[in-house]
Structure formats: structure tokens, C-alpha cells
Amino acid sequence: MGRATPLRDLHPSGGISSTGGPDDPVAAHLLEVVAAASDRSSWSDELSLRVDTWTDRYHLSPLRAHVLRGLRLGPVDTVLEVGAGAGAVTRYLGEVAATVDALEADPGLAAVARVRCADLPGVVVHGLALDDVPVAPAYDLVTVTEVPAGDGTPADRLLHLVATAHALLRPGGRVVVALDNADGVRRLAGGGLARVHPGGPPPLCATRAELADAATSAGLSAQVLGAFPDHRHTRTLIDHDGLRSVDPTLAERIVRLPSPPYDGEQLDGDLERRAWSEAVAAGHDGDRANSLVLVAGGSPLDLDPATYWSADRRADLSAANHVRHTAEGRVVVRERAFPSAPALDGPITLRPQVEPYVVGESLVERVAATPAPADAAPLLGLWTSVVDEHVDAGGGVPWDLIPRNVLVDGAGTAHAIDQEWQHTSSDRRSTIRRGAFWLSYDLLFTATTPPWLAGHTVLSGADVLLALAGEDVPPDWRPDLDAEALAMASLAPRAPHASLAAQTRKERRNVTYLSEQSPSSDDPHDPVVAGLTAANRELRARLEELELARRHDEIVQRDHAIGLRAKLETARAELEAVRDKEAGTRDRVVELEQEIAAIRSSTTWRVGSRLVQPAARATRRKGR
Questions:
Q1: Rounded distance, CA 333 to CA 319, Å?
Q2: CA 411 to chain CA centroid, nearest Å
Q3: Which end of the chain, N or C, is surrounded by fewer C-beta atoms within 10 Å?
Q4: CA-CA-CA-CA dihedral for 319, 324, 329, 334, to nearest 10
Q5: pLDDT (average), residues 529-546
């Protein structure tokens, strides 16, 4: 049942009075989905497969808790979560902490969160708000991963939130707050705010400086990280200062843009990418992350410079990759993202390991830049030599040792990176063929197509690449496509008792279609389309420049407005001081008038006035 807390002593049942089902249709739908699930864990593939809308994704995605998973908070005993929603993050906290008090004022969502965590005895969901919590140092961690907007400025709201949370911490405890960045590139590109609760208030957004200032004003130390695409479905978490010390350019390459749009949103993805690139180049990436994560209080965390997660993968095959400094140098540490997720059947397994961090150029880009086949052949030889090194080292060939996962350093040496997977039947021949297939796809569809590969399909292009590499060209690709379909089906999330064979048949159709594709066309309208595309590209670039300038002006104007507000507050304070002084003067005048009236009513004044007035007239006459 977890340890006792003052909140539990005051509200043993969580402060819930209603026992009926939710009236809100969104909460009712979520309750139906969660109640029917056999797997309600924080990594549940079963729940992730029930996602149909953005709201579903917000409440059911396994990525919801990544913003906390990536912080390396260490052992945590007692946690207060503010704003539990339907319990996606609450569930994770209940799996790693002994005691969790979760606050959710919306009765419908609170009902869903209670069902999501029903098998975790240490979790109690309270139908209360933060201000309802008894002020006592009871928690090791207070988390707020969604802050609704309200009255007052963002700075005032944040200070109240952090100061209130600070009062609830035990010695050495921490506050974690995650929210949208008002200066993030997503906002610069026209992105709106997520409507977490339809019909409810929008979420609060603030700047990095406002978030850090809230912590220091509340008497806490502050570390601020950046999250992409946001803090709700985090795939990349960055300690910006730490990452610059590893590789100043990695922040641009590690972030996947454009961000997925929120419901009904029009987001300019090209502008978002360009704004992020310019921010990294200028060293302002810490101020331009899409979301911000504050860690306040306690001793400073030993943060990883960056953590990035795989997505759209089966839970037991999902990886968390940490870029770190070690005694051996810069490395990438790969771990299971969900260590407790049970392994399912299939030929693929995850390879937790430590890889050296490599700075270099993508082999795909190098091949794409070659003007003739003879120039590409040595580069393909670099790749096959890396495959041979792994064969000689024993232990099986990594399934994903394909050209897109090979970098060439400044000395011309090729290095394998991101080797996440091991295949039960992977060998040199299958790895080389798979690499040629996906290199052909990359050159035809994701990179600049070299002139000597133009006009090919993915499969015929793979034949060309194998021949250039001095490898055997298969007379029949069907066994290789069958193996690829099985592997892809094994990687995909799968509900309990779902058929791997059925998923494999679906993937086989996809792989076959892909193998037959070619970007070339003999359409006579192509030159016209190409001309219009080029003109459109120029117009878009100009519009992006104008949009960035407009956004910059908005920020400058906002900063100017903040300065004016500060001056206005000073002027108001000075005016109040003058008014106070004036009021004091008026009071003194009244006192003097009362004294004069008392004097005039006295006998002495009446007698004296009779003597003074004639003397004064006589003095005036004498002066004439």
C-alpha cells in the first residue's frame, strides 16, 4: 500500500466521492480501452495499438514517460504527481517507486488513472489539486508533466507551482516540471498548443529563462533540458551544454524534424528544420528546444548529454541510447528502453552494448555524391570490409550493419554505428544483400540520386550496387524479401496472442511494393513540374526568411514589452509612494488647521487679534 503521507491521512480514499462512470466522452472511451486491456503496463503494446486519435496517443503511448525515464533520477521512494491525466506517467511512476500520490482534478480522467494503476498497491489517485495537499516535507520527487494555463503571467504561475512543490519536498528531494517552450522552433514554425483536454484550458508555455528563474526564486538549484518533438512523446532529451562538449553539431543531427502535428494543426516543417539548424549553428539551441524540462533541487544530476529512443517498435525491442562521457572517451550506451517488457517470439533481439561515439560523414551521402560507378566501388568496399570485421570477430553479424549505419571519418576509415539488432540467421551474405537493398532505396528516395543509378527500381538498383561491390547478385530475391518481411513483422508492436504470420504477410506485400518502386518517369510534363517545383522552392525559402524575421520581431517586441512592463511597475511604485506622501501631507494640514481653529477660538487669540490688527494697519500706513 506504500508509506503513509499527510495527504493519504487526510484523504484515505483519494478524495473521490463519485463512483459512477465518466460523463466526458473522451474519458469514457479511455476507460473502456484501459479496462479491457490485459496489459496496462507503461510500455503496453496492446494499449499503443488502440491509438486512433492524437488524444488517444497522448493518454496511451509508451513514450509518455520518456521525459522522466531519461533523467537518471536514481532510487525514488515517495512521489507526488501533479496532473495525472489518464495515468500514463502515473503507471510508470508506480512501477519504479514504492509510494505514488497522483493528483487529477478531472473525475473522469482520475477514474481512468485508477483503473490503469489498479494492480499497483503503492499508487493512490486523488481527485484533488496541488493546493489541496497538506504542506509537509513528505516527498522525494514532485513531478508536473503538464501545466495548464491560468490567471497571471507564466512567471507568476511557475513560481507558485515550484514554490508550492518545494514546500512538500524532503531534504534532497527534487521537482521536475515539463512544458512547452514559448521560444521553441515548433512555435516559431507556426505550431499551436496541444489541446490536452478538449474544451479545457491550453497548456502553459514559458521560456527557458522563466523556468530557471522560477526555481532560483523558490530557493532551488536548476537544470533545464530540451525535449523533442515535445515533452509528451519524447524521442530525444538533450542537456545542451553537455552535448556541445561532445559534438557541437550533434544537436542538429540527433533531432528528427518536422514534429508530428497536433490535431488540426498547420505546422511548417521546413521552417521548423531550418530554424533549428540556425539555432544550433548560433549556439542558441538551449533556448529553442520545442519543450523544456526543469530539474530543481537536490544535488545536480549527472545528466547524459543526450538520450534518444527508438519508436514504433515492439516494447522488448525498443532501445534507449545514451550519449555519455566515460573514462574511455565519448560513447553511446544502448539499453533496453523497457527492461521489464517480456520478450516475444521472432528472429530479432536487441543488442545492449557500448559503442564508441564516431564523428564522420554518412556513407550513403558519400555514395550519393559520386559521379560514376567507378567512384562508388571503393566506398562500397569500405562497407563490406566493416561487415567482414564483424564476421571475423565472431558472435554473429549485426542485422542492421547496412550503409545507412556506417560513418566515414576524416582519415577515410569506416565505422559501424547504431547496431541495435541481432538476427538469429544473420550472416555475411544476408547482411550484404540487405544492405544493398536499403542503400538502393536510400539513394533513390531519401538522398541525391547519383546519375549512374537513375532510372532503376529499388531491386534493380540493389543488383547494380552488389555488382560494384564485387558481390554475387542473387538470381531470385524472393527468399531475401521473405526474410525482410518476417524481421519487419517481428519489430512491429503486437497485441497479445496476435499472429506473427498474419503480420508477416502484410509486411511481405509492403516489401514487394517497395522493391518495385522507382522515382524516374517519362511523363512529358516532368520539365514543367520541375520548373514549377524549383520556383515554389524559391518562394518557400523567401517566405521562410520572412516568417523567421516576423517571429524574431515578435520576440523582440515581447522582450521590449516586458521591459516596458517593468518600467511601468517601477513608475506605479513611485506614484504610490508620492500618493502616500501626499496623504501624509494632507493629514498634517488637517492637523494644523485643527490646531489653528483651536487657537483662534481661544481667549488669547481673540485678545491678541484685536491688538495685532490695528498695529498692522498702522504699519501699512507708515509704509505709505
A1: 10
A2: 36
A3: C
A4: -10
A5: 57
